[in-house]
Amino acid sequence: GNSVTQMEGPVTLSEEAFLTINCTYTATGYPSLFWYVQYPGEGLQLLLKATKADDKGSNKGFEATYRKETTSFHLEKGSVQVSDSAVYFCALRNQGGKLIFGQGTELSVKP
Amino acid sequence: DAMVIQNPRYQVTQFGKPVTLSCSQTLNHNVMYWYQQKSSQAPKLLFHYYDKDFNNEADTPDNFQSRRPNTSFCFLDIRSPGLGDAAMYLCATSRDGGEKNIQYFGAGTRLSVL
């Protein structure tokens, strides 16, 4: 079946540090891949997406590349800010159109 | 410009007292979804509407119902809330159900059950 696995949190970084949140997936076919961000007390916001192999999604300094050979979609940012503190969800959308989420990774950025 | 609007943001109800959460959208999307998200967990799909067609997830309790009177509005009804139903409820929409379509989420309604 389809599934998404993220690195466990919480992840605590200092401001301007480099961020990587690992995400791997299991799926039949070639699903679209997404990163959503959830700020405290809020709903989910789409951060970036990629719809086919080798696509790179990017937004607000965050990037993720769809790697078919390693079934991965790791999220990276070169220099995090305090305002990036949130929970990040990796997700795939399967052929039936359903979103399958990872368990979420909490990021805390300290000044 | 809010596109998926959930009201209220916070809802308190009593054990066993029916409660309705609402969602509206300005995107004219065909599909509307309801998710339940408990603390520190991923959102869990309860059901969705594709136009007027209702699609229930196999493990959604009968206590949860939904109505979609028109394209713009969708309601989540909890007939007899239990303490275990306290959660954030998220509404989402997408243009259609295809695998490449993005789901847009509302800000959520946090439900407390006393």
Question: What's the topology here?
Answer:
The complex is a heterodimer of chains A (about 110) and B (about 110).
Chain A: E1 3-6, E2 11-14, E3 19-21, E4 23-26, E5 32-38, E6 44-50, E7 56-59, E8 62-65, E9 75-77, E10 86-93, E11 99-101, E12 105-110
Parallel strand pairs in A: 2-12
Antiparallel strand pairs in A: 1-4, 3-9, 5-6, 5-10, 7-8, 8-9, 10-11, 10-12
Chain B: E1 4-7, E2 10-13, E3 19-25, E4 31-37, E5 44-50, E6 53-56, E7 64-67, E8 73-78, E9 87-94, E10 104-105, E11 109-113
Parallel strand pairs in B: 2-11
Antiparallel strand pairs in B: 1-3, 3-8, 4-5, 4-9, 5-6, 7-8, 9-10, 9-11
Keywords:
heterodimer; A: 111 residues; mainly beta; six-stranded mixed beta sheet; four-stranded antiparallel beta sheet; 51% strand; globular; B: 114 residues; seven-stranded mixed beta sheet
What does this structure look like?
The complex is a heterodimer of chains A (111) and B (114). Chain A is built from no helices and 12 strands. Chain A has 111 residues and is mostly beta strands. The termini of chain A are far apart. Chain A is globular. With 114 residues, chain B is mostly beta strands. In chain B, 0% of the residues lie in helices and 51% in strands. Chain B contains no helices and 11 strands. Chain B has strands at 4-7, 10-13, 19-25, 31-37, 44-50, 53-56, 64-67, 73-78, 87-94, 104-105, 109-113. In chain B, strands 2, 4, 5, 6, 9, 10 and 11 form a 7-stranded mixed β-sheet that branches. The radius of gyration of chain B is 13 Å and the shape is globular. Chain B starts with a strand and ends with a strand. The model of chain B has no long low-confidence stretch (mean pLDDT 92). The interface between A and B is medium-sized, with 24 and 25 residues.
